[in-house]
Amino acid sequence: MVHQYKNNGYNIVLDVNSGSIHVVDECVYDIVPVLEPILKAGLTGETAIEAACMACEKLPYSSSDMREAIEELMELHEAGKLYSPDIYEDYVIDFKKRETVVKALCLHIAHDCNLACKYCFASEGEYHGDRALMSLEVGKKALDFLVANSGNRVNLEVDFFGGEPTLNFDVVKGIVEYGRSLEAPNNKKFRFTLTTNGVLLNDDILEFANKEMSNIVLSIDGRKEINDKMRPMRGGQGTYDVIVPKFMKVAESRDQMNYYVRGTFTRNNLDFSEDVKHLADLGFKQISVEPVVAEPTDDYALQEEDLPVLFEEYDKLALDLLDRAKRGEPVNFFHFMIDLTGGPCVAKRLSGCGSGTEYLAVTPWGDLYPCHQFVGNEDFLMGNVYDGVSRSDIRDEFKGCNVYAKEKCRKCFARFYCSGGCAANSYNFHGNINDAYDLGCELMKKRVECAIMMKVALDEQNEQ
Amino acid sequence: MKHIKTISTRDLKESMKKGGCGECQTSCQSACKTSCTVGNQTCEKVK
Prior knowledge:
Low-confidence stretches of chain B: none
CATH topology of the largest domain in chain A: TIM Barrel
Distance between the termini of chain A: 32 Å
Largest sheet of chain B: none
Distance between the termini of chain B: 31 Å
Shape of chain B: flat
Strand content of chain B: 5-15%
Strand content of chain A: 15-25%
Radius of gyration of chain A: 24 Å
CATH superfamily of the largest domain in chain A: Aldolase class I
Largest interface: A-B, 86 and 44 residues
Helix content of chain B: under 10%
Oligomer: heterodimer
């Protein structure tokens, strides 16, 4: 499968199955789709070149240029960097059949929140249930469960999530302390992450977080009027003025690394590139702003008709970020990060997000769900931290979830970069976890295109 | 090549040989919590 597109003056050809990326001139760009069926028909060498030349004769290039271009394309094909076949299906299905271990937990430290964000999937922290705080006992049991079910896996991830986890921060501290005590005896290493709206952040929390948290996710949507519209306090007051100074302090105290300011954009701010730029102008270097997931009936939900505007916004943002990089002031936008030379292996790329198998969410009272997005939906209650996973059928359903289980993903060029999308989004929009949230897919594809273009542009800049 | 410039990338086919150790982060966790993105993640063996 080949995906080709034009962006920012570059003609980009992505050989999906090998991961190879080629920047080509107009002549090659036009020949790429013509040559593929010829090679697939089994023609080789001079016969293939002759056939391709004939098929291209109406293209507006000289015959010597076209012949040269065809030869170059055939060279790439022979090197396994173009028109590569998809050889991964059996491999990934076998990979998914393996005995999985649990390697990450999302701890719902507080089903309570001091904000009333209008798009909250957790219905203001309560997850459609009662307000509750996790006890230290449940937190410890959760870590015991994780260690006991993690096999030989050394690195274990634990997120302190909510609601708002700073409403129950003594328990966070206790869980971290307990986790550290488990590391040496069990040959494990915990990586903790805190997700917070920032309102209660203080020096004590920050000092602790900087010592113990591998990552901090700081929630803010961007410009003051945008943030305050969707992220008010419970009394309706805005939060921007309260959180911005605190978040700036967090970012600086962590040397501008290992944190994200993380926002959500909705139909209220289709011009979300301005919000990313605003956060960058405030001095933040690690930024993630992403599309809201909402019911189609919500007035702030993104609609299919918004896609052209949103695509343009991603293009504008890519150019702005390139400009910042050129000025020596690079900003990292989470959704444009793409690691072309390293990055995960193909098993990881195709095998889905790990929800329900490697990653589970824990409620304040110790129930286990496939991920935070499913918490509160009793159909997905998998067990608890005391007795472990009792619904192995749910785990097996999630285990089978990979890009080859999803018809839309099999045909998608972005499958090696998104891994099949979010199971919860699929469930919310289509009633099963093996489909895909179509609007999200379109945005994901656009982001992959922009991210690759930026790599190409930065590569060119480095050469100069 | 005169018409084509190839950007350096990890060969996905090669990654089958030593991949699949499972030590990497789960996909949703690294920052965002609402989108499954793997293209930006780090391989624990490569880093």
